Every structure is written in C-alpha cells, then in structure tokens.
Amino acid sequence: MDAVDACIVDFSASRPRVITHHDLPLDDLRDELRALALGERHLAKGDAIDRLGWLDIRMAERISLCVNALLKQSGRTAQDIVAIGCHGQTIRHRPTQEYPFTLQIGDPNTIAELTGIPVITDFRRRDLAAGGQGAPLVPLAHQALFSAADPTQTSLIAVNLGGICNITVMEPDTPLIGFDTGPANTLLDAWVSRHLQRPFDENGDWAQTGTPSTVLLNQLLAEPFFRLPPPKSTGIEQFNLDWLTHRAGALLAQLPPSHVQATLTALTAHTLTEALHPWLNRANPPNVVLAGGGARNAYLIDLIHQAVQKINPSVVLQLSDELAIDPQCVECAAFAWLARQFLLGLAGNAPSVTGARGARVLGGFYPA
C-alpha cells in the first residue's frame, strides 16, 4: 500500500521486455486503505460501504494518473497500448472460509475512461470459483518472464518480496510450485509508519539500529500459517499490527521499537528460507532470484543471504536486475502478462499452485 507501480511491457519478441516503469505514492490514501482492509474497528466513524465506494474510485483515479504519467514518460500514447492489466488494491482476501472471496478495488470503468485504454482486471475470482486460493497468481508469469530472460537457467526459484512474500519453484518436467510464505513488507511498513511516520524502512536502515529478539521471533513463529502445507495464501487481514500485538504480548512494550523492526525483518527472512529449505538443501540447488520492493531492503537481503548460506553455501542468490527486470517491475509485469493471456484466451492460473480444479482464463474486460 505504499504506491501504484506501473510498467510498459513489450511482448512482440520471444523475450518480454520492460520498456519503462513509474510509481505514484499512495501517501494520502494509505491510512484509509489499511483501515478498510482491517475492518470496522479501524475505521473512523462513518459508513464502511460508502468508504469502500469512494476508495474504489479514488484508487482508480490514482492508477489512471500513474498510467498517464508513464505514457508521457515513455513518449507513447494510449493508442500504442493494447491493454492495461490492472491488479487493483487488495482490501480483503479470504480463500479458506465457507464462502471464499477476494476483493480488490480500483474501478476499471473509471480507469478506461481516464486513460482511453481497455482494462483487464479481476484476475483472482475465477480461480477461487474453480476451487483455488486465487493466489499466488504470479508463478506462471514468473516462468514466462524469467525463463525468457535466461533460458540457460533450467531450475529457478523466484521470490516476490511484496507486502506478502511468495515463491515460485520452476524445475524441468515438474509442475509449478508456488505459495505465500508469510509477511514480507506489510508488517515492516506498518511498524515504521507507527513509530517514525514513514511509509517504509528504506534499505532497512532503522531495523539495522536494532537487534533481533530471539524470544519475540519464536513467539511470532508460533503462528500456525507458517506450518500449513501449500496451497496457501495470506494478506494484510492476517498479518497486521493487531496480529503482532496478539502474538508478542507484553514483550512488544518491553523492547525498543527498533529491536521490534529488526525482529520483523528477521521474521521475513526466516519464514522465507524455511519455506525454501527443501529445494536449497540439495547438491545442485536452483538459483534464487529476488524481486519486489523488499529486494531494495539491504538489511533484509543480507539476512536472507546469511540464512540461505547456512542451508547451502553453493546457492546462487541474485536480484532480478541480473535477469534484466527491475525488482520493482516484476509484479506489474506479471499482471501485464496475465492481461495478455486473457486476450489470447489462455490460462493465467497454475492449478498446482492455487489448488484450482483446472486451468482457467482469468480476468474481465472493460473497453475504452
């Protein structure tokens, strides 16, 4: 919830190419979005449905501003773009309850009207309707983007360090494996926002002034989600500051805030590397490529590197820059790829990842 990320992707050659990227901060909307995502108790007095309605439009306006700025930056016009693949802003993801649902906002009608470009959106709900989790959806896109970037890498694990961390395991003659491992940036961003009024901990600089607490880390690792087998997915409705308060108990008030930030960073590194352990603990492990906003957190990357090296010193850990895709572009490029799949009438989900009954074309189309 820190910014809208957008990129222009050229799929005309065998290797997809990210042409340019732009982001637009959500500073004035972040608190409202987080409150809506966390529920009634967090909302200021008022009607939640009204809040949902106007945030749907305001998100669409912000997405449109980002797209139009991207076009100007690239010297292109709306007529040069086939379609916008818009993920929207997730405000609730409940894939395992009796009536599973997922909800993203950012009205596609408004986006199409303000940009003059057709919009493809609502990618997750068809997978849910087919019995899947609706997430993660990026594994097939990871396979397309990274395999094309370096065809010599036959085995690869892609890690997306977004608000939530998810992984994609790509191996020859093996169905794709992918799942959410737990929080990546969502707790880090919320904690630094509470204490320093910053949207994120740049480079992990604040976390590095603290010391991870083993006791707190162990209390957080008691969360049952971390031990669930895939398919599994999660979001801010599970991993938030209320969750942290519940899990940490009295310890949260006893530790300096910077120590808590350091521990939350260690939590992301630990849960990720534990999830990777079965593939890394091999004589010839896959390379691991890191993407997402968290790939720019130097402290987090250092902790991940240390943990991976303890499992297997021969593991090659690299940022997606080395495969010619900026870490900040991987997720938005993935949804451009999903939009292209829709237009081609091809599946966008991987049943081996989401647990759906079969492959499905994902998304809905909104003409300009």
Quick gist of this model?
This protein is an alpha/beta fold and 368 residues long. It has 13 helices and twelve strands.
Give descriptors for this structure:
Nucleotidyltransferase, domain 5; 13 helices; 368 residues; alpha/beta
Written account of the structure:
This protein has two domains: 3-124 and 336-366, ATPase, nucleotide binding domain (Nucleotidyltransferase, domain 5, 2-Layer Sandwich); 138-323, 2-Layer Sandwich (Nucleotidyltransferase, domain 5). By secondary structure, it is an alpha/beta fold. 40% of the residues lie in helices and 17% in strands. The protein has a five-stranded mixed sheet with strand order 9-8-7-10-11, with helices on both faces. A hairpin with a 6-residue loop joins strand 1 and strand 2. The chain has 13 helices and twelve strands. It has helices at residues 30-38, 48-74, 108-115, 125-129, 138-149, 186-196, 214-220, 241-248, 251-254, 257-280, 298-311, 330-344, 351-354; strands spanning 3-10, 17-25, 84-85, 89-94, 101-105, 119-121, 156-161, 164-170, 177-183, 287-291, 317-319, 364-366.
